[in-house]
Amino acid sequence: MVANLNLDMFLTLFPVRDVIAFGAGHSSLGPVAEEAVRGLGLALSADPFPEQVIFVRSDHYAFVRQGIPALMLSSGLSSADPTVDGAALFRHWISTVYHSPRDDASQPMDFESAATVARLYLRIARAVADGLTRPRFNPGDFFGERFGAAARRP
Q1: Which end of the chain lies in a sparser environment, N or C, as judged by fewer CB atoms within 10 Å?
Q2: Predicted TM-score (pTM) of this structure
Q3: 32 with 115: CB under 8 angstroms?
């Protein structure tokens, strides 16, 4: 295992225009994600909720603690459809559906955006698989300093 690409809760409630790459600033996966995002004509946006420390609260963090660089992509808050307020839709979904009995497969989905997400993860996975070196934490990164040695153990 050289990297964890976490596909957890990439909401496709509206046509995706931008992507948030949680963990991108911690490892060499960041530039790989940035190139893949740009290659699909999308924008890469900063974490709009840094106070929620999502990077350490999601499923991929167990891998980070074992020294494996990780990346979790999420749809941004901007819709490619100018008539749709993506941020409002996201906030409404989080406050009324997320982790409730309504959080099921009947939720609306923009299928073209879902296909774009699949292509995005494929681009990143191929770049990692075809890379000449395994992903690494950035020099001096907190997670690399704290957990990176775990990945180098025999």
Answers
A1: C
A2: 0.90
A3: no
CA count, 13 A, side-chain hemisphere, 153: 7
Rounded CA-CA distance 39/19 in Å is 12
Residue-wise pLDDT for 52-71, tens only, equals 999 999 999 999 999 999 99
Confidence of residue 150 (pLDDT cuts 50, 70, 90): low
- Letter string b/e over residues 119-130, b meaning 16 or more CB atoms within 10 A of that residue's CB: ebbebbeebbee
- Hey, which bits of the chain come out as E strands? 4-6, 18-22, 43-45, 70-75
Is the alpha carbon torsion for 96, 99, 102, 104 positive or negative?
positive
How would you list the strands of the sheet with 18-22, edge to edge?
Answer: 4-6, 70-75, 18-22, 43-45
Give the three-state DSSP class for 114: helix
